[in-house]
UniProtKB/TrEMBL annotation:
<feature type="transmembrane region" description="Helical">
    <location>
        <begin position="262"/>
        <end position="284"/>
    </location>
</feature>
<feature type="transmembrane region" description="Helical">
    <location>
        <begin position="214"/>
        <end position="237"/>
    </location>
</feature>
<feature type="domain" description="ABC transmembrane type-1">
    <location>
        <begin position="74"/>
        <end position="280"/>
    </location>
</feature>
<keyword id="KW-1003">Cell membrane</keyword>
<feature type="transmembrane region" description="Helical">
    <location>
        <begin position="12"/>
        <end position="34"/>
    </location>
</feature>
<dbReference type="GO" id="GO:0055085">
    <property type="term" value="P:transmembrane transport"/>
</dbReference>
<dbReference type="GO" id="GO:0005886">
    <property type="term" value="C:plasma membrane"/>
</dbReference>
<protein>
    <submittedName>
        <fullName>Binding-protein-dependent transport system inner membrane protein</fullName>
    </submittedName>
</protein>
<feature type="transmembrane region" description="Helical">
    <location>
        <begin position="105"/>
        <end position="121"/>
    </location>
</feature>
<dbReference type="InterPro" id="IPR035906">
    <property type="entry name" value="MetI-like_sf"/>
</dbReference>
<keyword id="KW-1133">Transmembrane helix</keyword>
<feature type="transmembrane region" description="Helical">
    <location>
        <begin position="78"/>
        <end position="99"/>
    </location>
</feature>
<feature type="transmembrane region" description="Helical">
    <location>
        <begin position="156"/>
        <end position="179"/>
    </location>
</feature>
<comment type="similarity">
    <text>Belongs to the binding-protein-dependent transport system permease family. CysTW subfamily.</text>
</comment>
<feature type="transmembrane region" description="Helical">
    <location>
        <begin position="128"/>
        <end position="150"/>
    </location>
</feature>
<keyword id="KW-0812">Transmembrane</keyword>
<keyword id="KW-0472">Membrane</keyword>
Length: 293
């Protein structure tokens, strides 16, 4: 803060701070406070709001604990989001390492442009492209039929389609943090480990990954949070047996008309996601300052 006042002076720095605080209060604190308020109050007709029945309680939260189907979908969403983060890491780590340590500047530019351009398109349209790709008579089934890997078209929609769509949708949120972290690693450290007889796997496990742990943790946090809160991919690529917890929240708000219970479900998802993120950062020994970088 002292640096801010030094660079911009008292008046301009105060304006900047006031705008930031206003944004935090209006866009972060106020919506979450309202969500907590809705979650702890019953869903009542307008005439009864503020009356003797309008009291704070944990009934909406306990409803989730007692609803077996919703509870199972909730935990499935958490585990599936963790799998999305892990699978995205497996896909992105080799590419990030190659871009940061072996690719020429021209190859890096071409690869990053090729990866970035599709994300100029809206997420809904990109998910619809996956919908077409995985269709019963889509290109994927046509290719597999033509090379003889399957005898009849396969219905790819469901958990597999949702996970594939999410891994693709959030790949850049994993790639760039890892790339930025690995890029700062001196090649001499890798060469020294190799000269000392370390295998390729050991070099990555003992040298590269510890150096890039902040980028890895950041990418995992981003992809996990985005996957847990995703609605488009489950809605378009899912099946009746592959519902996501966000779909239940959507149904409470816009189909069931019970904003209080929907807010309680959203609050539980938010709290557990934050807990998972904080535990992940603790295990990786990465603090929030490293993530913010």
């Amino acid at each position: 803060m002292a640096e801010l006042y030094r660079r911009f002076g008292g008046g301009l720095a105060t304006i900047f701070l006031a705008l930031v605080l206003l944004w935090i209060a209006g866009m972060v604190l106020a919506p979450n406070v309202m969500m907590i308020d809705y979650a702890l109050r019953p869903n009542l007709p307008p005439a009864q709001i503020g009356g003797p029945n309008d009291v704070y309680s944990l009934d909406n939260v306990l409803y989730l604990a007692n609803e077996a189907v919703h509870r199972s979908i909730f935990f499935k969403t958490i585990w599936a989001s963790a799998f999305v983060a892990f699978a995205t890491f497996v896909v992105c780590y080799p590419l990030a390492y190659w871009l940061a340590q072996h690719a020429t500047p021209g190859q890096t530019a071409v690869a990053l442009i090729a990866l970035t351009i599709p994300f100029w398109v809206n997420e809904v349209l990109r998910t619809l492209a996956w919908y077409i790709l995985l269709a019963f008579r889509g290109p994927l089934n046509a290719l597999l039929l033509s090379i003889g890997l399957i005898d009849e078209p396969v219905r790819w929609y469901g958990n597999g389609g949702v996970l594939a769509g999410m891994i693709y949708a959030y790949i850049l949120f994993m790639l760039f943090p890892i790339y930025n972290a690995v890029e700062s690693l001196e090649k001499a450290q890798i060469e020294a480990a190799r000269d000392l007889g370390a295998s390729t796997w050991r070099i990555h496990w003992r040298v590269v990954m510890p150096h890039a742990k902040a980028g890895i943790a950041t990418g995992c946090v981003f992809t996990f949070m985005l996957a847990a809160g995703s609605y488009v991919a489950p809605a378009l690529l899912g099946a009746p047996g592959s519902r996501w917890f966000t779909q239940i929240i959507y149904n409470w708000f816009f189909e069931g008309g019970d904003w209080n219970r929907g807010a309680a479900y959203a609050l539980v998802l938010l709290v557990l996601c934050l807990a998972v993120v904080l535990v992940t950062l603790k295990l990786a020994r990465v603090n929030l300052t490293d993530v913010a970088k």
